[in-house]
Design a protein that fits this description.
With about 625 residues, the protein is an alpha/beta fold. It has 22 helices and 26 strands. The structure holds 6-O-phosphono-alpha-D-glucopyranose. The site of 6-O-phosphono-alpha-D-glucopyranose (G6P) has 16 residues, from α11.
Length: about 625
């Protein structure tokens, strides 16, 4: 996720900006840059790579007098969303006059339309980013007052932003604004700092203001004048933060994993943003670059992935078969090229990878391409190897995932797979009306996840009862079967409890021999179609004295009678149910691991990105 730092005050801005960017490095980024305003001049340095590379360029190219002299500047770490990670796409971006500069976090959804209008007025663009379009729009409207130009421009913008804008003509003040992307103002003595999160601020001051959506503020060394888009002053509370730096990076959460679990409603909103077309009952996934006719012509899907992404692919199989009538095979990427994978002319291969760098998935992509398959990527990291080599696909927009155990990437993968199945289904036999209903169901997903997160305390209590066990079984049916696999994977990854996910019906074919009063079972009983059969399977477990925790739909009290412990998930459609369910299992795994004192963000023997076979 992009990081922003801005400074205006009585000291040299350069060191504050570079120090702030270093504090934001944990968020993940691919390029960095900064702009200084000094004596009615704007100076910009930016490039791909690390903040220390930027720092070296600053020291090599800007002399000490200038570095220390500039009292105002903005800086940015970019995590690519629109356009690959290149120096041109790095921030800050400037307007057409070169006098205004801006850093931006978020997504301008209507940037294509805005760019077309601006091009018609003679604007030339140097990057592929949505952000550059916004600063050009601000430049177009600039008549000598930066606040007015920014407010006017933002009225034309659809999407999300946290921005900091400077003008060489107004060297004592910067304008910042937020909608959907966080922005915090730090109030120091004779200096004001703005950043995406407090970790970049607390070295300088602990007095902060968290901006709200639609706030626009003018920052000077003396403080912040905050207004809304209509120039009406708004008052915002000044808060005192007492987090240390580590806690600040994690947004006050104990671990990145917990932060990322709680970030899911927002991450999912970003994944869905601008992609649902209720009127036509379909999804807009332009990165697929396939016409309705081409999508209708697909005869078979093959999904290749590893780990959590593989489990997402298994849920995807249910979506593609149900909504698009497409035979779908899910393959462990590591196996793919060591067999004779059959590719027929109308097959499409979908490679799912959060990082876009997993060696086995990449090898499967290359194998499939060599055999002539149409390959699409479903990645989170923009510009990653799999995204580049597939050349077409859908980005998750989940933001960087730092905890080794994948959480928000998984739920965003499911949301994308559901939208892909909807889109392909609509090109085949799915009716517009059914498509619109599904759009409506998909729209509910962030709210469903919020409602599970509210039950954190209930899940902590259940986790407390089972934190000492050595083994755990997770059972499900239908698309809850891969969710059971993912729940077991989460638990074993971070708590080191031996956990196995099984199809509830397969239990009788072997593993039931292992059940006794020391081996608990997590039964996913909230798939209404399979509910009665799950109740029978739960009874089989109870008959072997195994304690059973039931994941049940809110209000399904009769299911609760059959189990020893309960985790509730909200009532929702069958298609969306895997998402809130897995969030409950992520929280369960997290709290068990926490109670056991495990190193949750870096579990032993595991790597975030596995780039070897
Ligand atoms: C590693 C990670 C997992 C991840 C898997 C696949 O094992 O620890 O969390 O699911 O790689 O990674 P990918 O980036 O391809 O989704």
């Amino acid at each position: 996720m992009c990081g922003i730092v801005g400074y205006v005050g009585g000291r040299g801005a350069t060191d504050v900006l570079l120090g702030g960017l270093k504090r934001l490095e944990y968020r993940g980024y691919d390029s960095a840059g900064l702009a200084l305003v000094e004596g009615q001049k704007l100076h910009i340095l930016k490039g791909t790579g690390k903040v220390r590379d930027l720092e070296q360029s600053v020291y090599a190219q800007w002399d000490a007098g200038f570095r220390d002299g500039a009292r105002m500047g903005i800086a940015h770490t970019r995590w690519a969303t629109h356009g690959s990670p290149t120096a041109e796409n790095a921030h800050p971006h400037t307007d057409q006059t070169g006098h205004l500069a801006m850093v931006h976090n978020g997504i301008i959804e209507n940037y294509v339309a805005l760019r077309t209008q601006l091009k018609a007025k003679g604007h030339m663009f140097a990057s592929q980013t949505d952000s550059e379009v916004l600063i050009h729009l601000i430049g177009e409207l600039y008549k000598g007052n930066l606040f007015e130009a920014v407010s006017a421009a933002l009225k034309h913008v659809e999407g999300t932003y946290g921005i900091a804008v400077v003008s060489a003509n107004e060297p004592d003040q910067m304008v910042v604004a937020r909608k959907g992307s966080p922005l915090v103002i730090g109030l120091g003595e004779n200096e004001t700092i703005v950043a995406s999160d407090v970790s970049a601020i607390i070295a300088h001051t602990r007095q902060v203001i968290f901006l709200d959506d639609d706030d626009v503020a003018v920052l000077t060394a003396q403080g912040a004048d905050i207004r809304n888009l209509h120039n009406i002053p708004v008052s915002r509370e000044v808060a005192q933060v007492d987090w240390d730096v580590g806690a600040a990076e994690k947004g006050g959460f104990e671990h990145f994993m917990l932060k990322e679990i709680f970030e899911q409603p927002e991450a999912l909103e970003n994944t869905l943003r601008g992609r649902l077309d209720e009127a036509m009952g379909t999804a807009i996934l332009s990165g697929l670059s396939l016409s309705p006719r081409e999508l209708a012509g697909i005869r078979r899907l093959v999904i290749v992935a590893c780990g959590t992404s593989l489990n997402a692919g298994m849920v995807g199989k249910y979506y593609f078969e149900e909504l698009a009538d497409l035979p779908t095979e899910v393959e462990q990427a590591a196996e793919y090229r060591y067999r004779n994978p059959i590719i027929q002319p109308d097959d499409m291969v979908i490679a799912i990878s959060q990082s876009g760098e997993t060696a086995d998935t990449l090898a499967a992509v290359r194998e499939a391409k060599q055999r002539g398959a149409l390959v699409v990527g479903l990645c989170n990291v923009v510009g990653s190897t799999i995204a580049r080599e597939t050349g077409r696909g859908v980005y998750l927009h989940a933001g960087p995932e730092i905890g080794v155990a994948s959480t928000k990437a998984f739920t965003c993968q499911l949301a994308v797979l559901l939208m892909m199945a909807l889109k392909i289904g609509r090109c085949r036999r799915l009716s517009r009306q059914r498509g619109s209903e599904i759009c409506e169901e998909i729209r509910q997903i962030p709210a469903l996840v919020r409602s599970v997160l509210k039950r954190n305390d209930e899940i902590i209590a259940v986790a407390g009862e089972y934190a000492k066990v050595r083994d755990f079984f997770f059972l499900g049916r239908g698309c809850m079967y891969p969710v059971a696999l993912e729940g077991a994977l989460k638990l074993k990854e971070i708590s080191y409890i031996h956990a196995e996910g099984y199809h509830a019906a397969e239990l009788k074919h072997g593993p039931i021999a292992l059940l006794d009063d020391q081996v608990p079972v997590m039964a996913l009983m909230n798939d209404l179609a399979g509910r009665e059969k799950m109740v029978s399977n739960v009874q089989e477990c109870r008959a072997r004295n195994a304690p059973v925790v039931g994941v049940i739909t809110e209000g399904d009290d009769s299911a609760a009678q059959h189990v020893n412990g309960v985790i509730h998930v909200p009532r929702c459609s069958r298609l969306t149910a895997p998402i809130p369910t897995v969030v409950a299992l992520q929280l369960f795994a997290y709290h068990v691991a926490r109670i056991r004192g495990c190193p949750i963000d870096q579990p032993r023997n595991l790597a975030k990105s596995v780039t070897v076979e």
